[in-house]
Amino acid sequence: MHERDISITFMSGPNDGQTLKFAQPDIGEERVLLIGRREGCDIYLPYDNQASRLHARLGCASLPVSASDSVDSPHMLTFWLEDGKSRNGTFIEREKTPIQGRVSLRPGTLFRVGRTWMRLDVPLTFNDEPDF
What b-and-e string marks burial along 102-119, b requiring 16 or more CB atoms within 10 Å of the CB? Predict the structure, then answer.
């Protein structure tokens, strides 16, 4: 059995250090996480008065890639971040200007929604049996 997650770690605020986990999309699919103050957002920020109700979207696509002898169903994950027309903008790393449109996001990258810093963690796949 394989457990595949997308994980986001809070890097500031009352949830500092907490990690949220979401299932990775199936191969050929995309998963979109909603970030904001509105109840029902996947990443819910009710305490952040600088975050809009629907502040941003974080997407993950699982793309099929060429098979090899060692891997049956290889895939590659790609990530993107998009501002949801928020009042205060969405920021990546040390950039001084908010993102415009949809931007690619590399695992390990810090981003800010309102006053809340988060990190897209490097995805890991766990399995019950070692591969050796």
Answer: ebebeeebebbbbebbbb
